[in-house]
Amino acid sequence: MAQRFDYGDEDMPIVSYDLVFPDRRRLLPVSGGTSSAHGFPDQTEQDTPERLSDHIEWDPRLDLADRVDYAVAAASGVVAGLVDSLFVGELSLDRAGEWGSKTVERLVVGIACAEGYKGDSLKEAIRNLEKVHPLAADGNTPDFGGGRQHHLRDFAHHFGIGGLAASIFTQFTGLSIGTDTAGRLVVVRIPEDHRRYLGRDVPEKLVFGTVEWFFHMVSDMAGSSGNAGAGTGIPGPLLSFMKELSVLPFFRDSGTDGMGFRLWLSKMFNGTFLAEHDADGRIIKGTERRFDLRMEIGVLGEIGRQSMPVVINQCVTRAFYFCRRLSREIDALGIGGVGDLGRIAPEDVLPWGTPAMRRMLTVSSGVFVGVDIADAAVHAMAGEDKARVFLLRVNYVGIATFVVSCVVDAKAVMAERWKDDAERERDAIEHELADLDCLELDPQKARVLHSLMRQKVLYDIEREKHDRHAERKGKWLDEWSRRITQTIGVEGDGYFLDGKSLYDEINGTVGAGNGEWLWLVALELVMFKPYFPLHGDNDKEYKS
């Protein structure tokens, strides 16, 4: 709702409600000067801004970061980058494989002991689990490449959602699903000697397809009982998913010349892709690194190491934000003891959810990624295998954090812009309604409206729990009231009614004539949203 103030004949209404939201939202025009033909005070082009954003930078939704915030965020990124360079270093596949193998071996022995096995031998633990929890799909081992390859080609041996679905499919159909040597999807019948491992009814099929399948996967994690700890394991969730994708025509038909997607997955699982090569390009025997479940678990451990500088960066940045905002609030509220800390609004100090915090995290993570990539490039230039060294020294957790920070920050900025665009579109529509010029209040009723508006703000201030916020709201109300009285031409606060006098005025005015104006007052009061910019020097005091 916009207010239009007319000056001139006392019989004319001084407040006209046009149901519009002008681009230059101003509470009242500056009094004085001559009146236009429509009752508006004349203003020169220099006095009237064409757009609000051209003259003031104010946004009630933003708590913007300043130079100190940016400087500390950047310094935190540099420190975290140095920690990454000095203490994290390269992502080691050997260390990942070793750590993953030990973790899996402890898991297998632990589960076997829970199943009744007495001892600590990995080989015996695997043999015990294989005996107690057989799998129907093992009968199709020759159909899927034998003992060395069937864990990759038989989908029921995939440790993931796809493997679980394939296991249940086998229980209900008596068929095993996987791929042949050419990467084509094949479905084969479970042989008779393994059909006894299929459930006889629905509950049993579900148990065999889920619980028994899980324990059998545990028995295969660390290799077979004949080559415990060093034999072929099972593919982890990542490799399993890629292998299942490889049966799609898009992947199956790609790369027919050279190493295609299917062959690349096979080499990853066999360990030849990650093996070391001599000067002639031949694989050095004993350096194979199988990318199975053990390696995937180990890589997670390496990612945990890479997370250390990222966590440090986050903690330093957020801690500074919290301490600085807390210090500001303590100083502004004059807090002298721990008991007064409850007067601080948590949203004013907590280090998340604010535009300033989002921007600081974007800066700190961006600087960290820059330092990390520079460190990786320097080490790569000094080594022989430049590409390998560079890729292993890059902190991928830091890159992911930076990308997430950028996305979150960009989405917040775009949301603000979309909100502003929506407001401008609404303004344009309601400008077209201004020609109605039929909703008007005379001076007496306008006084009632302004008094109710003031009471609305006072009601909010009285219920504000935090002194700092209440003080800002009070300043806004004082300035708003002063501008109202200046425009009306009334000295002091005598213009506003409160308490019983306000409601006596409403009852008396309604009883004296038509009460339809009260609907307009109620509508305007509902639409009245306080704490908007008043285009003065104190606008930034009313932030948020």
Ranges where pLDDT stays below 50 over 5 or more residues in a row are: 1-62
Question: For the largest beta sheet, what order do the strands appear in spatially?
Answer: 1-2-5
Percent helix, as a range, is 40-55%
Strand portion = under 5%
Mean pLDDT: 81
Order of helices and strands: EEHHHHHEEHHHHHHHHEHHHH
Radius of gyration of CA atoms, rounded to a whole number: 36 Å
Largest sheet: 3 strands, antiparallel
Quick overview:
The chain has 544 residues and is mainly α. 55% of the residues lie in helices and 3% in strands. Strand 3 and strand 4 (185-189) form a beta hairpin.
Task: Tell me what you see in this structure.
By secondary structure, the chain is mainly α. It is 55% helix and 3% strand. It is built from 17 helices and five strands. It has a three-stranded antiparallel β-sheet with strand order 1-2-5. It has a two-stranded antiparallel ribbon with strand order 3-4. β3 and β4 (185-189) form a beta hairpin. The longest helix is centred in the middle third of the chain and has 41 residues, at 293-333. It starts with a strand and ends in a 17-residue tail after the last helix.
